[in-house]
Structures are given as C-alpha cells and as structure tokens.
Amino acid sequence: MQRDELVARTADGVTLRIDRLREPNRERRAVVVCLHAMMTDGRYFGARRDIGADGRGPSFAGVLARAGCDVLVADFRGHGRSTPPRAGADDWSFDDLVELDLPAIVAAAAEASRCAPGELVLIGHSLGGLVATAALGTGRIPSPRLLLLPATAVWLLGPHAPLDRRLVMLAYRGLTALFGKAPIRALRVGTADEAATYVRQLTGWARAARWTSLGGIDYLAKLATIETPVLPFVGAGDWMCRERDARGFARHLPNAAPLRVISRRAGDALDPDHFQLFTRPELRPLWDELASAITSARA
Asked: How far is the C-alpha of 253 from the C-alpha of 218, rounded, in Å?
C-alpha cells in the first residue's frame, strides 16, 4: 500500500493538503475523492492509518484502495493539515469551500491520478456533501462519475422547528460571536474550529429556512440541475442527520437512488451515528458494498 501527500492551491492562495492511498501494482478501477464533515478533518476515513496495525482491520480508505481505488482524502481550509488559515485569526465562508477549495481539490486529484475530472467519484460526508452538491449545482466543478452522499442534509428549520434543534443553532451562533470562532477543539466536540462567517451562514440558513450563498444564490434550487448519479445513505443512530433529513435532501436530486438506511433492522451490525459510518470496523460489509458500487459505476 502506498501513501503520498499532495497539495492543492486555491485561487486565493490557500494550500490544501490531500492524503493519497493506493496499491500501485493493482489495476486501477476508480479514483475516489473523500470530503470530510464539519468540525473535523479527513483523518476518520483512515488514509493515514497503518492498515491493520491497530488490530481493527482495514480502514475505510484501505478497503477502497484494496478494491482497486486510487483514494484521495482532502482537508478543507482551516481543517486538519490545511492550516493556515485558522479560525478566529482568519475567516472563511461556506462559499469559499464551494468556489475555491473543491475546484482546487478536484483539479489536483485529476492531475495526480492522470484522469479527467469527470472520471472521479466523490464521497461527500455531511459538510462535504453540501459542498459537493453546491459546487455541482452552480457549475464550479464538472459532473463526476458518481456522487456518494453519506449523512448529508441541511438544517432549514424556520421559527416552528423542533426546539432542540433551534437551541443547538442558537448556542452555536452565540459561542461563535463570543469567541470570534466556534471553539470546537476547546469544547472537545471535534478536531477543527469553525470560522465566524461560516457559522453565521450555517445558522442563518437554519433560521431563515433558506440555503443560500452570501451573494444570494439559492443552492437548494440549483440541486435540480445536477445530472450526476447519487447514492445517499445515513445511519439509523444519527441525530445530526436523521433519516427524514437525508431523504428530504435527496428528493431534490434528480438522479438520486433510494436512500439506504444503515441499521440493525436492515441486517447491518449496528445503528451508526454520524461518524461511525466510516470508523466502526463492524461496518466492513457496508464498506465492501460501497467499494463495489464505486468500482462498477460507469462514466
């Protein structure tokens, strides 16, 4: 198994880090770009972990690589090793990830793997899925071969939404205003702080029940233009993206397959939460299933 680190440079001068995992002596069957969730970075996909060294068996990235995938795991700006910028001292928006980061990541992945951007498979987990669909809907990146959307939805709550979710957004906005950033690391709820403008956007969407750019682009309406085949799935134990959230989001995508709910009821090993989808070795059968879907997808 070969591991490398790539860099992608955005149009505004930010350097993004990308981990690459592959088996160079194996026939390549797909090139996969993994995009991480909010408040964390790409490490949970496992591209930097020694495969099997901790006794848990292969990581998710390792399973894909062994299936013949060239796996590229990117960190958005301010996350993981894509620092600087740093939240608080620096600032960024969701739109920066859509308009600057993902186009740079896609270009770097295609160049390194010597393939066309349209041959890539994207896995956008949560925030990564929102960035990917917003970028596709607004034409910032070419349509990939396949898009996987694990635990992807946007909270468009409005004034009559459940109180617990409105309180979460209120607390998120208030803490960010107080500290000049979302102090995720200090609160020990994740590995990456989030920038003030990004949090204002996120909480603003929830309050207004509209998913828009700072310039007024209606991202939700743009989803109808996406022609890419989409495979959405979600864990039954995920409170951040519940089944109805993921199903409602997928309805806006013309070529989305039926939502796959990972649950004991469906024969899976557990009812995974938001991050267990990619971190629990008991879900190896799911990972094999996804690897099969990825390697059999046609351009």
From this structure: 14
